[in-house]
């Protein structure tokens, strides 16, 4: 056998594997080895997909809807998506102005891959979801991360945006409610960012609205294309059924945006994965057209868990956690633990050390904030039943109190 050189694509070779999936894999390995890990690491709802959605999928199989669909998605689903954007977001949308992809990730990747060239820049406010900068790098462009501090609610300010824009800026990625901080942009905050974008017509906006339905305390969700219709022509508004209807494994994301962009994304997808799973598309159709009670029930459950987790984390020695307005993540500073040693004798130099020691010594999996571009923080996904969440909080508290200088 000849030894073939293992030469990878240079962008892929330079990219990091998904930090969230690395932790998901670590948890799975430990569980397979019989360790009772409580996972607060993966960002996915713990609820079952609603029964009527599951039944629609089974009916689709029996009805023989098991073949390729159009690349951009089944027309009835695209009509339901257009109706959703009009109904919930005030975006007048034709079905032709939508696209269905295999998960929200594919929407984002397709949009970036369809538009980025070497030398292009993409503004990514930090903390960010782990995959944004890596996707940008995979497409051969440069992610320009803009630090957003806890003092600014982890949100991008108009000044910081204005300073980050250059002639090479191609996109700004906004994610509200945010993964990992749970921050939610108000109408006024979006309007202020819109004023900056209006001065820079070469910048596109990717609005990742996947946590749209998870806003708490009556906080109202708004999206940029609705707040500033003059930006709609250069905004890709993306969403999906994963978080709203507990359908992460079905892999259905969707978007609306300008025709030129949707057509480019469709061309790319047609040479890549083709249309999303036909069964999943029928399930998504049932989710979008069926009763919406599930969405508000889930919101109430998450709000209750948010209150529990924030209160409990703030009791933990060395932790400090602001109350997030949305999503299902708490983003807690663990600065007070840095430089200390865990009860198991591990020096906690970074938030990653804290996360790994928590996993090994307390059997609780969380994500280190530095994976999301801001340390020392811990991202706690409270998408888990109340009893397990309370046990995890107890274990975190014991871990923190057991640390020594
Ligand atoms: N978006 C979720 C998270 O942040 C799922 C994992 C992923 O795709 O990164 O945990």
Could you give a short description of this structure?
By secondary structure, the protein is of the alpha/beta class. It has helices at residues 10-14, 19-32, 51-62, 75-89, 104-115, 131-138, 158-164, 187-198, 224-227, 259-270, 278-289, 293-315, 351-362, 386-401, and strands at 38-39, 98-101, 121-126, 142-147, 169-175, 204-208, 235-240, 253-256, 320-321, 329-333, 364-365, 367-368, 377-381.
Kindly describe this structure:
The N and C termini lie far apart (56 Å). Helices cover 40% and strands 14% of the residues. A seven-stranded mixed β-sheet has the order 2-8-7-6-5-3-4, sandwiched between helices. The protein has a four-stranded antiparallel β-sheet with strand order 9-10-13-12. Strands 1-11 form a two-stranded parallel sheet. 49% of the residues are buried. It is globular. It folds into two domains: 10-48 and 294-401, Aspartate Aminotransferase, domain 1 (Alpha-Beta Complex); 51-289, 3-Layer(aba) Sandwich (Aspartate Aminotransferase, domain 2). Strand 6 (204-208), helix 9 and strand 7 (235-240) form a beta-alpha-beta unit. The protein has helices at 10-14, 19-32, 51-62, 75-89, 104-115, 131-138, 158-164, 187-198, 224-227, 259-270, 278-289, 293-315, 351-362, 386-401; strands at residues 38-39, 98-101, 121-126, 142-147, 169-175, 204-208, 235-240, 253-256, 320-321, 329-333, 364-365, 367-368, 377-381. It contains 14 helices and 13 strands. It is an alpha/beta fold. The model has no long low-confidence stretch (mean pLDDT 96).
């Amino acid at each position: 056998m000849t030894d073939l050189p293992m030469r990878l694509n240079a962008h892929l070779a330079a990219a990091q594997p998904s930090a969230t999936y690395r932790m998901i894999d670590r948890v799975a390995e430990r569980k397979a080895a019989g360790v009772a890990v409580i996972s607060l690491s993966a960002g996915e709802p713990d609820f079952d997909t609603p029964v009527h959605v599951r039944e629609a999928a089974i009916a689709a199989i029996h009805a023989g809807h098991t073949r390729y669909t159009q690349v951009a998605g089944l027309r009835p689903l695209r009509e339901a998506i257009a109706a959703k954007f009009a109904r919930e977001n005030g975006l007048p949308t034709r079905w032709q102005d939508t696209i269905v992809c295999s998960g929200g990730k594919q929407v984002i990747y397709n949009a970036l891959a369809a538009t980025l060239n070497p030398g292009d820049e993409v503004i990514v406010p930090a903390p960010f979801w782990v995959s944004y900068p890596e996707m940008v790098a995979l497409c051969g462009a440069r992610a320009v991360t803009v630090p957003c501090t806890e003092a600014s609610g982890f949100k991008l300010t108009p000044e910081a945006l204005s300073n980050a824009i250059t002639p090479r800026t191609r996109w700004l990625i906004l994610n509200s409610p945010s993964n990992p901080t749970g921050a939610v942009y108000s109408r006024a905050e979006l309007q202020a960012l819109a004023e900056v974008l209006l001065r820079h017509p070469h910048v596109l906006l990717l609005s990742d609205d996947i946590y749209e339905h998870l806003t708490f305390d009556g906080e109202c969700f708004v999206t940029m294309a609705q707040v500033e219709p003059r930006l709609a022509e250069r905004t890709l508004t993306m969403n999906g059924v994963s978080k709203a209807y507990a359908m992460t494994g079905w892999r259905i994301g969707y978007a609306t945006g300008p025709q030129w962009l949707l057509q480019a994304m469709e061309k790319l997808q047609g040479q890549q994965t083709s249309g999303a799973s036909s069964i999943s598309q029928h399930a998504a159709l049932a989710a979008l057209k069926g009763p919406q009670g599930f969405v508000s029930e889930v919101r109430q459950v998450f709000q209750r868990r948010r209150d529990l987790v924030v209160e409990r984390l703030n009791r933990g020695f060395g932790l400090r956690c602001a109350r997030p307005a949305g999503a299902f993540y708490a983003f807690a500073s663990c600065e007070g633990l840095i430089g200390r040693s865990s009860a198991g004798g591990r020096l906690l130099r970074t938030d990653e050390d804290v996360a790994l020691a928590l996993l090994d010594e307390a059997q609780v999996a969380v994500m280190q904030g530095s994976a999301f571009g801001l340390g020392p923080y811990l991202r706690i996904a409270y998408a888990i039943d109340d009893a397990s969440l309370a046990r995890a909080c107890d274990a975190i508290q014991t871990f923190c109190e057991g640390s020594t200088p």
